[in-house]
Amino acid sequence: MLRGPSPLWTLGLFRSELTTTLRRWRTLALLGVLAAVPVLIGIAVKIETSDGGPVGDGGGQGPAFITQITNNGLFLVFAALAATLPVFLPMTIGVVAGDAIAGEASSGTLRYLLVAPAGRTRLLFAKYAATCAFCLVATLVVAGSALAVGALLFPLGDVVTISGTRISFGDGLLRAALVAVVVAASLAGIAALGLFVSTLTGSGIAAMATTVGLLITVQILDTIPQLHGIHPYLFPHYWLSFADLMREPVYWDEVVKNLGLQGVYVAVFGSAAWARFTAKDITA
Q1: Is the pLDDT of residue 283 over 90?
Q2: Cα separation of 142 and 180, whole Å?
Q3: What is the pTM of this model?
């Protein structure tokens, strides 16, 4: 009786996909850009406050975390994630996800991958799992760079939450780790969308460009007041809800809405990608 690939074989396929993704020069360049963003923000804040004056203005959410950086370098983590989440992080994920299947097809390696005992479903799952793992890697690159720069340029200590309460630096680090995980999970929707687009074409460049184009289009739609009725259904709408994790107590409502919305996008576009890929005629 024929037996399918073992779970260990599937894990090996996932590891191979993730390793291949992380070794590409394009991926390393994208991660380098992400790591540079917190450095630029930290240096800009340091220069602007060198005369003892305040920086920025805001109410404690999104980029307004910048106003807290001079008091505590840990806030550079939150400010950097807020700055990269609308554009840089999802664009990076869009490039990786869009290239997942179409890139293999354009390079002529997809057919050979399917010769191995993977099966289309397992291969697609491994591709998506590797993309989701990359979401976490990219987010941690931003957070790690911001933490290092924040510790180097600014003081560290107890953290004042958005609610005005004070928590220990250790608790602040735990909140930062939780924020990084939530931000990474927020990218699952664009990853699924990019994977679906990748199954529609045999050109990696076309798939990447289409995914990034869709991202920009949805971002624009989310800023048009007249379309407020559809805003809660757009995958980026609740992205900055991670700021609520810096409240005391934590305000979970919009965070849960964000994660639930990403789950819907994963289910819809993941299913569409599976339906397309399993029925696709592979000629390359």
Answers
A1: no
A2: 9
A3: 0.87
